[in-house]
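Notes from the 1:1 (GR / supervisor)

We went over the backlog. Supervisor wanted to see one worked example end to end before approving the batch request, so GR pasted a single chain during the call. The sequence is below; no edits were made to it. Supervisor asked that the structure be written out right there so they could see what the output format looks like.
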Amino acid sequence: MLKPSEPFLIPYLSGPDKNLTSAEITNEIFPVWTYSYLVLLLPVFILTDYIRYKPVIVLQGISFIVTWLLLLFGQGVKAMQAVEFFYGMVSATEVAYYAYIYSVVSPEHYQKVSGWCRSVTLVAYTAASVLAQLLVSLASLSYFYLNVITLASVSVAFLVSLSLPMPKKSMFFHANPSKDVPPKPPGKDAFLAGPQKDRGPVCQGRFTISGNLDDGQLSIPKPGNVALRVFVWWFRDLKECYSSKHLFYWSLWWAFSTAGFNQVLNYVQILWDYKAPSQNSSIYNGAVEAIGTFGGAVAAFAVGYVKVNWDLLGELALGIFSVVNAGSLFLMHYATNIWACYAGYLIFKSSYMLLITIAVFQIAVNLSVERYALVFGINTFLALLIQTIITVIVVDPRGLNLPVSIQFLVYGSYFAFIAGIFLMRSIYSICSAICQNKVQSSAGSQNPDGLYSEGSRNVTMGTRL
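Structure output shown during the call:
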């Protein structure tokens, strides 16, 4: 759906239509989205699978319509806080969209359909941003009518959702017990650039409704309650998945970086309005968002053709690009020119989109679709929990209540902290790998014929015979 009003939300709220102050928007209104998203995410995640997706998609459509009706006709801080609550509902219910697609198409089409959905989402956001910029710059259209266009778009999407067929199954509560182990999450086999042969499979199996793991390696008790049984499976699945250090560290970066990224996206328009007030300046938020989305998509696409051993150098890449993110946020904080601020944002967004693409596929490489959905849900929840802590400390009136100009100094320091952690760990991992190779080379040179024990040579000879 097209939402051309999004790049110009702050000029609309601070302009004559709503006449809200920057402090009210920053410290009283926007935090509500973070809190509501956090509170709603897990219940909606569970409910989505239990009622088989479509009702949640319809609920998202209703939430979209309520959000924009309030945005158009509501007045005052309380009304805008209600807007943020319902938009938190929109964000929490987004999980149903992709889950629904996987429930109604056959596994062999997962990769193709996933690629289409991702492409349509990026194209729609880019097109909406370009349209908004053209209407504002060339036609001098009021921000109010951008929101009217968005309301019309989400209303059409809601009507379409009513005609969607109801799925007969879901991933967990209504799974087909006779189904074979599902394929890995779509798209990763074509994306993975580094060799994966040094890392063993990570939790590839899947629990069926009968209570047994598909590969026969693990069984669990059978509680009488189906919901309780599903929760037990989830707990054991997650425990097994996060026991992989590779998956754990990539998930750790995902959670911390996504928290910072969402926080920056939430408040960047306020920073732009602070650097160049929309009431007396020409603003190009739509153009910047379009370029940022397109640039991030190109970077994410291009990284698929880079041959890198992500097992060895992945954490180094996370550290280096986190330094880039920190630097771009410091640039946005210290720059007095709006164009420098725009440039910092473009660098930040492109860098994050590149790395999150790598992280998603590194996490997904040895996971079934069901387990990937669980890990994705938990990582998203952890990111929201971290973002909530940041919001309470930095933004909320009950915390430091910092102005937006100082907030971005904090966010830059936050990404510098992430960079420090992963740079130190990557240096340790690389040094350990070099030392291990030297030890193996030294052992091989001292005993070139002794790669096998005597017993091993006998076994080998017996096998050949």
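Supervisor's comment: The two ends are 67 Å apart (CA to CA).
Batch request approved.
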